[in-house]
Write a structure and sequence with these properties.
- The chain starts with 13 loop residues before the first strand and ends in a 15-residue tail after the last helix.
- Helix 5 runs parallel beside helix 6, helix 6 packs across helix 7 and helix 7 packs parallel to helix 8.
- The strands form 4 sheets. Strands 3-16-15-10-9-8-7-4 form an 8-stranded parallel sheet.
- It is built from 10 helices and 16 strands.
- It has a single domain, classed as Aldolase class I (TIM Barrel, Alpha-Beta Barrel).
- It has 319 residues and is of the alpha/beta class.
- The protein binds ligand RRO.
- Ligand RRO binds next to loops.
């Protein structure tokens, strides 16, 4: 029976915070989303949304290079938040509205007050659909990841929601211990969070070049965020755990981590993701990856007899 479904009858559309996305597959904040040209390229592609690089108040050059290395199994980066400053990303919202998909801005202020200031300012931009507040940048020397400090996260969310007029989601770091999932979930449950993106890179890994007997990136003595294949099991665990802990709310979980084909996307959705973001693989393949993953996911759904992602979202079985 299942094979009787035509690929044309399969939809990957989804909703985040009530906002319609034509496809549940889009870019992660970070790779290839820092300039106007890059954001327009995402607009023209099959990506289901356009998400900006994390923005700070002022333009930043970021950390010294080399600061991003691709390996067989994934990536290590210590970019250090290079970005054009939030105004550029906000001002682009009008022209990016020409594409038939929402524009999300990632915000990662250098301080508590910076986050509040930026989010207050973004109220003036009609065509920014939602904000992904980055609680998890691992690469600014001397700055801890906010998402690992539950009280600090709570205070920041209190301040942000006091000024926010748009849907606000959070980009979380990976958690590895059951009590930590529960502590962050109990913070998030106290706010009208629109979505939680799980996960940012696994912070402070180390990749080594054995022939040179050295680290491979320059900042922080070679320590950097790990992305790609190796982080998929951690990403799936975080999607699954937050989906279970937060599923009584209207909050969408967005899966990010180790997705390079349709089956990886299928796994994230099965764990509870309403959409998936592509990071390391997008950096490698560029914008054609969105269409390729879309076609692969649709073929898997056809094979399994599913018409929409709601047919299997979150339905991972225990044995
Ligand atoms: O710019 C970065 O170094 C960076 C950021 Br803001 C982030 O959220 N995650 C990451 O792996 N790198």
């Amino acid at each position: 029976m299942s094979n009787d479904i035509s690929l044309n009858d399969i939809s990957l559309s989804t909703k985040i915070a009530g906002i319609a996305l034509p496809s549940c597959i889009y870019n992660a904040s970070g790779p290839l989303c820092s300039t106007a040209d890059e954001l327009h390229a995402i607009g023209k592609s099959a990506s289901g949304a356009i998400l900006s690089k994390s923005a700070t108040l002022a333009k930043r050059a970021g950390n010294p290079s080399p600061r991003y290395i691709d390996t067989k199994w994934g990536s290590i980066n210590s970019m250090g938040l290079p970005n054009e400053g939030y105004e550029l990303y906000a001002n682009l919202s009008n022209e990016l509205n020409a594409y038939d998909k929402p524009y999300f801005m990632s915000v990662s202020g250098m301080s508590f007050d910076e986050n509040v200031t930026i989010i207050k300012e973004l109220a003036n931009f009609e065509h920014i659909s939602a904000i992904e507040l980055n609680l998890s940048c691992p690469n600014v020397p001397g700055k801890p990841q906010a998402g690992y400090d539950f009280e600090q996260s709570r205070s920041l969310l209190e301040a942000v929601f006091a000024v926010a007029t748009k849907p606000i989601g959070v980009k979380l770091p990976p958690y590895f211990d059951m009590p930590h999932f529960e502590m962050m979930a109990s913070v998030l449950n106290d706010f009208p969070i629109a979505f939680a993106t799980c996960i940012n890179s696994i912070g402070n890994g180390l990749v080594i070049d054995t022939s040179l007997e050295s680290v491979v990136i320059k900042p922080k003595h070679g320590f950097g965020g790990i992305g790609g294949d190796f982080i998929k099991p951690t990403a799936l665990a975080n999607v699954r755990k937050f989906y279970t802990l937060l599923s009584d709310k209207k909050l969408a979980i967005i899966g990010c981590g180790g997705i390079k084909n349709g089956m990886d996307a299928f796994e994230h959705i099965l764990c509870g993701a309403s959409a998936v973001q592509i990071g390391t693989h997008f950096m490698r393949e560029g914008t054609p990856c969105f269409k390729t993953i879309e076609n692969e996911l649709k073929s898997i759904m056809k094979e399994k007899g599913y018409h929409s992602i709601d047919d299997f979202k979150g339905k991972l079985k225990d044995i």
